[in-house]
């Protein structure tokens, strides 16, 4: 590394200045806007995250505006972006910055880490871009660039791997322009040193890249395989009353989609037919006072909704009933509620011509 170290940041930043995308958050050093963009782009592609960023800064021009909005409204605006804990943490941090810090974000890495939902990566990004503090970011793009250029085979998701890569990035960072360096290495990983079939022949580091010389590009970075994906079977009970109302319930327990709304749910160990469903104690308890007159299956083939560590095999059961006290939400107002994209897709399809 000693041979490459003095030249690494210069090559990288030079490439970045010639090739960087014209992204709106790169035109500001406002901690609020940088924080918002970094939280949104975690585990999200720029193309997907950009429309949400624009919606948020339009709805909430300042951190105070975000803090003063209802959480349900924030979740609704976030709907479809996934990983909803990010949105809840975003709102909680906005309230703390507004109420306890007079609307002013901490100006250093150590104190930024104390904010809810702000980890090492986000704190490093804000500290370097907004306050010129030389704190190196390490994300998937950075892992890929460093592991290939320097031939690091330490697994990125186990043991001392994250710390080793953080230390390497910290040694390489340009202390005079840390924010530019951080954005450059992330951009290089996202656009040139891509996961599959990178164009190594035109790479600015191909004369020194260990992985390229050893023909190990496709094998780096090393990542220990995750646990097997868990299969879950969801049965949503979509109640339709004669007065065109339905039932939505808010998820309040731990786990996925906390505080989002959904139709009443019965989870089973496998797919069930209509008779099996009707004989389940959960269904009988739910329908006891419902007085439904018919039940039918909307989708014979389950919708498979893939999350990071679980796949949801989902079927929607339509229950028609007379007017009743349980169904309090007008069908015409379903779109006002923050729901998982799985529910949103069903609502769009089923109620389009209802």
UniProtKB/TrEMBL annotation:
<comment type="similarity">
    <text>Belongs to the Nth/MutY family.</text>
</comment>
<dbReference type="GO" id="GO:0032357">
    <property type="term" value="F:oxidized purine DNA binding"/>
</dbReference>
<dbReference type="GO" id="GO:0000701">
    <property type="term" value="F:purine-specific mismatch base pair DNA N-glycosylase activity"/>
</dbReference>
<dbReference type="Pfam" id="PF00633">
    <property type="entry name" value="HHH"/>
</dbReference>
<keyword id="KW-0378">Hydrolase</keyword>
<dbReference type="InterPro" id="IPR044298">
    <property type="entry name" value="MIG/MutY"/>
</dbReference>
<dbReference type="Pfam" id="PF00730">
    <property type="entry name" value="HhH-GPD"/>
</dbReference>
<dbReference type="Pfam" id="PF14815">
    <property type="entry name" value="NUDIX_4"/>
</dbReference>
<dbReference type="GO" id="GO:0034039">
    <property type="term" value="F:8-oxo-7,8-dihydroguanine DNA N-glycosylase activity"/>
</dbReference>
<dbReference type="InterPro" id="IPR005760">
    <property type="entry name" value="A/G_AdeGlyc_MutY"/>
</dbReference>
<dbReference type="GO" id="GO:0006284">
    <property type="term" value="P:base-excision repair"/>
</dbReference>
<keyword id="KW-0004">4Fe-4S</keyword>
<dbReference type="GO" id="GO:0051539">
    <property type="term" value="F:4 iron, 4 sulfur cluster binding"/>
</dbReference>
<dbReference type="GO" id="GO:0035485">
    <property type="term" value="F:adenine/guanine mispair binding"/>
</dbReference>
<keyword id="KW-0479">Metal-binding</keyword>
<feature type="domain" description="HhH-GPD">
    <location>
        <begin position="40"/>
        <end position="191"/>
    </location>
</feature>
<keyword id="KW-0408">Iron</keyword>
<dbReference type="InterPro" id="IPR003265">
    <property type="entry name" value="HhH-GPD_domain"/>
</dbReference>
<dbReference type="InterPro" id="IPR023170">
    <property type="entry name" value="HhH_base_excis_C"/>
</dbReference>
<keyword id="KW-0326">Glycosidase</keyword>
<dbReference type="InterPro" id="IPR000445">
    <property type="entry name" value="HhH_motif"/>
</dbReference>
<keyword id="KW-0234">DNA repair</keyword>
<dbReference type="GO" id="GO:0006298">
    <property type="term" value="P:mismatch repair"/>
</dbReference>
<dbReference type="InterPro" id="IPR015797">
    <property type="entry name" value="NUDIX_hydrolase-like_dom_sf"/>
</dbReference>
<comment type="function">
    <text>Adenine glycosylase active on G-A mispairs. MutY also corrects error-prone DNA synthesis past GO lesions which are due to the oxidatively damaged form of guanine: 7,8-dihydro-8-oxoguanine (8-oxo-dGTP).</text>
</comment>
<keyword id="KW-0411">Iron-sulfur</keyword>
<protein>
    <recommendedName>
        <fullName>Adenine DNA glycosylase</fullName>
        <ecNumber>3.2.2.31</ecNumber>
    </recommendedName>
</protein>
<dbReference type="InterPro" id="IPR011257">
    <property type="entry name" value="DNA_glycosylase"/>
</dbReference>
<dbReference type="InterPro" id="IPR029119">
    <property type="entry name" value="MutY_C"/>
</dbReference>
<dbReference type="GO" id="GO:0046872">
    <property type="term" value="F:metal ion binding"/>
</dbReference>
<keyword id="KW-0227">DNA damage</keyword>
């Amino acid at each position: 590394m000693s041979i490459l170290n003095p030249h690494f940041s210069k090559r990288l930043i030079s490439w970045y200045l010639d090739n960087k995308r014209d992204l709106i958050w790169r035109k500001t050093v406002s901690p609020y806007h940088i924080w918002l963009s970094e939280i949104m782009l975690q585990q999200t592609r720029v193309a997907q995250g950009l429309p949400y960023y624009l919606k948020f800064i339009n709805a909430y021009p300042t951190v105070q505006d975000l803090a003063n909005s209802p959480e349900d409204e924030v979740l609704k605006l976030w709907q479809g972006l996934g990983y909803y804990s990010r949105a809840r943490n975003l709102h909680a941090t906005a309230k703390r910055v507004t109420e306890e810090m007079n609307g002013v974000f901490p100006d250093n890495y150590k104190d930024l880490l104390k904010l809810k939902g702000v980890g090492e990566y986000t704190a490093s990004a804000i500290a370097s871009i907004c306050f010129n503090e030389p704190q190196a970011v390490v994300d998937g793009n950075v892992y890929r660039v460093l592991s290939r250029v320097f031939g690091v085979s330490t697994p990125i998701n186990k043991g001392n791997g994250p710390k080793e890569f953080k230390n390497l990035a910290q040694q390489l960072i340009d202390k005079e322009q840390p924010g530019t360096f951080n954005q450059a290495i992330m951009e290089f990983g996202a656009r040139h040193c891509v996961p599959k079939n990178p164009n190594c022949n035109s790479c600015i580091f191909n004369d020194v890249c260990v992985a390229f010389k050893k023909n190990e590009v496709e094998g780096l970075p090393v990542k220990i395989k995750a646990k097997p994906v868990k299969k879950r079977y969801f049965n949503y009970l979509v109640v339709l009353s004669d007065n065109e109302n339905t039932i939505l319930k808010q998820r309040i327990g731990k786990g996925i989609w906390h505080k989002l709304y959904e139709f009443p749910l019965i989870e089973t160990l496998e797919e069930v037919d209509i008779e099996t469903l009707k004989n389940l104690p959960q269904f009988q308890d739910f329908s006891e006072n419902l007085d439904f007159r018919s039940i039918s299956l909307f989708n014979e083939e389950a919708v498979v909704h893939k999350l990071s560590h679980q796949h949801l095999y989902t079927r929607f059961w339509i229950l028609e009933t007379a007017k009743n006290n349980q169904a309090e939400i007008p069908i015409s107002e379903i779109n006002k509620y923050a729901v998982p994209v799985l529910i949103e897709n069903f609502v769009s399809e089923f109620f389009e011509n209802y």
